[in-house]
Structures are given as C-alpha cells and as structure tokens.
C-alpha cells in the first residue's frame, strides 16, 4: 500500500479588526494521489483447488482512488459593539465552504495477473461512475448567533452539509451508499451567578432531524433508501464552581 500524497495550492485573504472581528476568504486546490479507503474487499489472487478456480479476497485498507479537490471558503465574525444599548451585546459567526471533487472511481474488478482482463467481479464495487471522495460534501455552511453581557451568554448554531458518499460498497447489498443532505440546530445558555458560580444548559439537534441514506443501484444513478436514523434531542445541564 502506498502513502497518500497531496500537492496543495492555497491562496488566502484575511482581515482582523477590533474586538475580535475578522473576515477571511481562501481558495485552494489539492491534487491527491493514492487515497486510502478502509473496509474494502478486492480480489488479489486465485488458486486452483481440485480443479476449481477459487478467488482469494482481501478486506482492509487499500489505495483506491486519486482525486483533485478545488474550492473556496469564506468565514467571518462580527460583534455589533457600535450599536446602542442591549444591541451592542449581539454578534454573529458564519462560514461557507464549497468543494468541487474530481475523483477516479474504484475499478469494478482487479486485474491481479496483469493480463488486461478482469479476474472476477465478485465482491468488487458494482458502480464505476462514482465521482466523489468518501465523506466529502459539495457544500458546508455554519451560522452562529451570539449574545453576551457581563452575566449571560447565549448561542444559537445552525449547521448544514450536502449529501456525501458513505461507502463504495456497503455490507449486505454491496452497493455504494450516499448520506443525504442534513442540518442541525444547537443552542447553549450560560449564566454567571457570581464570581465563583456558573450554570449552563446545552441542547443539540433541537429540531429532532431525521438522517437518511440511500444506495446507488446502477451506473444510471437509480437509488433506493437504505437507512433512517433519528438521533433525538439531547440536553445537558451543568454547574461550574471555581474556588
């Protein structure tokens, strides 16, 4: 197995103002070779036993594809200190990332003997026109609204990402799997009772979003729903005392 190598080109513009305000804009290009994927099944050889050809499979980490990733990210943070009264305690954080991925799809079968013909199709990826890298969405976005004064701190956060490739071949069906686009809304509240005592309340997935995935059936892109997960709302209450 070869190490994953990447040649990167990055260009960034950053501005920093008073009171923690900042803005950044970055462009990047990454030429990645020999991406390592785990849990993959490939045929590495075959033997003849009692006149029957028996394939030998390997399951684990392999160099499965190359990819070129280009994109940009814009981010910023701003506090409205110049406003009057209570409004001067508000602030906002935001970032957005866009990726364009051009990746080699894994070969449907392995040519173990090097004769130019596939050795077999069992256990190898069923769809060859997958142009993506596992775990990478095209669009990511985060938005955080903030309020903070001498005693109270409130944050409300929104996160979003597009669909992304989960696996080139899933257990049972052997089909590629895509995680559908999803978002979540989280919040936190902290209150400083005195110099020593602080109480807090955090909530995650407040809208109780359902996360679903789908399998790709063929090279034509036909899909069917594979799974649905509900991670439930979660709340955490905390007390912090400083001596």
From TrEMBL:
This is TonB-dependent receptor. The keyword rRNA processing does not apply. Pfam families: TonB_dep_Rec_b-barrel. Keywords: Cell outer membrane, Membrane, Receptor. Residues 2-206 form the TonB-dependent receptor-like beta-barrel domain. It comes from the Bacteria. Its main location: membrane. It is found in: Cell outer membrane. The keyword Protease does not apply. InterPro entries: Beta-barrel_TonB (IPR000531), Beta-barrel_TonB_sf (IPR036942). It comes from Paraglaciecola algarum.
């Amino acid at each position: 197995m070869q190490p994953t190598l990447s040649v990167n080109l990055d260009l960034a513009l950053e501005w920093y103002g008073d009171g923690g305000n900042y803005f950044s804009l970055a462009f990047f290009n990454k030429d990645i070779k020999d991406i390592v994927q785990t849990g993959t099944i490939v045929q590495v050889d075959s033997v003849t036993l009692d006149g029957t050809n028996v394939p030998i499979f390997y399951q684990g980490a392999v160099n499965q594809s190359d990819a070129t990733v280009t994109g940009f990210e814009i981010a910023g943070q701003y506090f409205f200190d110049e406003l009057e009264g209570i409004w001067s305690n508000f602030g906002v954080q935001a970032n957005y990332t866009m990726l364009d991925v051009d990746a080699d799809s894994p070969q449907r079968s392995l040519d173990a003997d090097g004769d130019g013909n596939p050795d077999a199709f069992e256990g190898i990826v069923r769809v060859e026109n997958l142009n993506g890298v596992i775990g990478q969405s095209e669009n990511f976005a985060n938005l955080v609204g903030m309020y903070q004064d001498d005693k109270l701190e409130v944050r409300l956060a929104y996160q979003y990402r597009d669909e992304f490739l989960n696996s080139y071949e899933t257990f049972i069906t052997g089909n590629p799997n895509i995680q559908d686009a999803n978002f979540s809304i989280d919040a936190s509240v902290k209150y400083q009772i005195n110099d020593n005592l602080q109480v807090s309340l955090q909530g995650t997935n407040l809208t109780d979003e359902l996360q679903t995935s789908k399998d790709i059936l063929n090279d034509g892109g036909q899909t069917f729903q594979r799974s649905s997960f509900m991670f439930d709302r979660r709340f955490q209450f905390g007390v912090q005392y400083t001596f």
